[in-house]
Write the structure tokens for this entry.
Amino acid sequence: MESTKGEGLVHLVCQGTVDEVWERLLGALGNMNVPVFCTVDHEANSEEAGLRMPATRVVIFGNPAVGTLLMLEAPTIAMDLPLRMLVHEVDGVAMLSYARPEALAARHGIAPSFTPVVKVATFMRGLAESVRG
């Protein structure tokens, strides 16, 4: 099931736990030789602050060759790059969420039909589907 709650966001229900989805996501990126620049575990960070929240993790990744083409087209898109995906728990269900590349492009005045945007959108959809389980 896919939903687009919020402007330009995709939310997908996944099979398995957040840990399992997270491992599939990182494994898929590794298998495709996509550089992972950073991961953020918001749940762990909240616990360090004495707070509690459901499992919430973000991976930041990308292909500099494609991202550079987008930034050359509209330098402000650098605020939204590298790409990221969120794996989080909602009511006991693992979810995968990401910003639609077409929406990011439109936000920065890039036509959704611009070849690098189409390439990134296709990549993100394929990655998400491969990770859902």
Notes: Residues 115-132 form the longest helix (18 residues).
